Amino acid sequence: MNRPSQPPSTAIGPRLSEKLVGVSFLSACCIVMLHAYQNSMVEAGGATAWLALLAGWTLPTFGVPIFFVISGYLLAVKSGCGTAPGWYGKGVKKRVRTLLVPYLLWCTLFAVTVIPFTVLGNHLAGRPPTSNTCLREPLASAWNLVLVYGGDLRYAPANGPMWYVRELFLLVLAAPVFMKIASSRFWGAVYLLAAGTAFFLHDWMPRSCWQLFETGLSLRGFLFFPLGLYLARHPVPRDGIGRLRAALPAVWLAACVGYVFLRLHGGEDCMTAKILLSKATNVLGVGAVWVLYDFLPGAGRLARLPVAKDSFFVYAAHMGVMFTLMCDRSQQLLTTRLHVPAAGIFLLRIAVPLGVSLALAEGTKRWLPRMYALLTGGR
Predict the structure, then answer these.
(1) Are 233 and 182 in contact (CB under 8 A)?
(2) Residue 83 and residue 1: Cα distance in Å, rounded?
(3) Which has the closest alpha carbon to 102: 317, 318, 334?
(4) C-alpha to C-alpha distance for 103 and 86, rounded to whole angstroms
(5) In terms of Cα–Cα distance, which of 64, 71, 75 is closest to 27?
(6) How far is the CA of 289 from the CAs of 85, 236, 296, in angstroms?
(7) Cα separation, 363 vs 369, whole angstroms
(8) Per-residue b or e along 217-254, where b marks 16 or more CB atoms closer than 10 Å to that residue's CB
């Protein structure tokens, strides 16, 4: 039972490759939706509250977990599940180019563009200069440089979404350990059960540990990245889970709706159920979206769109665009001068960062191809 199984083929067929591109692009768009959410939209009540919680807080939570799964799966497949000669050195060297260099560049770009804009806005509004930033006073300090580049694992870097890239690089460094565990069907399953339990119990951890395991050494990474390794080593037979596969999207949607209902109408008595349902939507969403991609008519064409390969650029750029173009001042003007309702603000917080990020990606790809290659790690 504990004997390692034979590694699968290292080939990735064109159909699977196309699906990975399409799912990654969909996930990047959903992460924009996730960051568009604001608690003030829920306070508006009614349909706006349902829209914001469902489309901005619950449904898109599969985005980062599925990125971890795909990254783990690709690393395992391309390394022969850790059996290819020299796979670790080659893998780390490649991730320096595809993860570490883009990480440093995007953090730097954020630091020299968005942060000065935010500090100036704070000054004009009479707020402390470090408001809405990762910085601490005094502004000109070595510690702020550490914070900008995510050197303190308790906090996300200045460009918040880049915590995922930071953690993915750390997980790749530890990949031999995960590969060894995943080589055994039994012990790999035991590890995933333990990591899944820790993931579900995360919200009950002491506050001092909670932040570290949120975006520093995120429990999402320690669950979903090894899950990708495990699935590459021990593929799930497509025919073996026919009914479960068909039911998974419906179960996921039911869990999402149930969470929103409890969040809006359940009160504090349902706190445990809300937390557990919220975690469940993460796990169920990964499988459901993977399955739905095959079920939805025309989904395969998504990967063939010119912008479909801009997933990483959108993920890295959208927060800076959102901070500058959809800042509090912009939203206040939209609300008071143009009388845009809360639901409209929510949709604009999705459409503007997504549209501008895609336009920047395509423009950079066309006119500054070398810069695009550096910013995306050659993707």
Answers:
(1) yes
(2) 20
(3) 317
(4) 25
(5) 64
(6) 34, 16, 10
(7) 9
(8) ebbbbbbbbbbbbbbbbbeeeeeeeeeebeebbeebbe
Burial class (CB in 10 A: 0-12, 13-18, 19+), 323: buried
Q: Any idea what the Cα angle at residue 218 is, between residues 37 and 262, rounded to 5°?
A: 45
pLDDT in tens, 117-176: 999 888 888 889 998 888 898 988 999 999 999 999 999 999 999 999 999 999 999 999
Q: Rounded to an integer, what distance in angstroms lies between the CA atom of residue 253 and that of residue 259?
A: 10
Neighbours of 185 (CB within 10 A): 16
Coil, strand or helix: which one is 138? Answer: coil
Q: Residue 73 corresponds to which tokens in the numbers above? A: 């799966």
Residue 226 corresponds to which tokens in the numbers above?
A: 């090894």
Residue pair 25/311 in contact (Cβ under 8 Å)? The answer is yes
* Residues recorded for the chain: 379
State CA 207 to chain mean position distance. 22
User: Where is pLDDT greater, at 47 or 199?
Assistant: 199
The phi-psi region of residue 3 (left if phi > 0; otherwise alpha if psi is between -120 and 50; otherwise beta) is beta
pLDDT at 59: 96
Please report how many Cα atoms fall inside a 13 Å half-sphere around the Cα of residue 75, on the Cβ side.
Answer: 33
Contact (CB, 8 A) for 2 and 184: yes
How is residue 105 written in tokens? Answer: 């560049």
Question: Distance between CA 64 and CA 62 in Å, rounded?
Answer: 6
- Beta carbons of 320 and 113 less than 8 angstroms apart: yes
Torsion, Cα 41 58 306 318, to 10 degrees, reads: 50
Q: Which pair of tokens denotes residue 370? A: 């070398």
Overall pTM > 0.90: yes
List CB contacts of 77: < 8 A, sequence separation 6 or more.
8, 10, 11, 12, 232
Neighbour tally for 212: CB within 10 Å: 16
Tell me which DSSP letter residue 4 carries: P
Q: Which amino acid does the sequence have at 357?
A: S
| Residue spans of alpha helices (H) in the chain | 14-36, 39-43, 46-53, 63-78, 87-95, 101-125, 142-148, 163-173, 175-182, 185-200, 207-210, 219-233, 242-265, 271-295, 311-325, 328-336, 342-367, 369-376
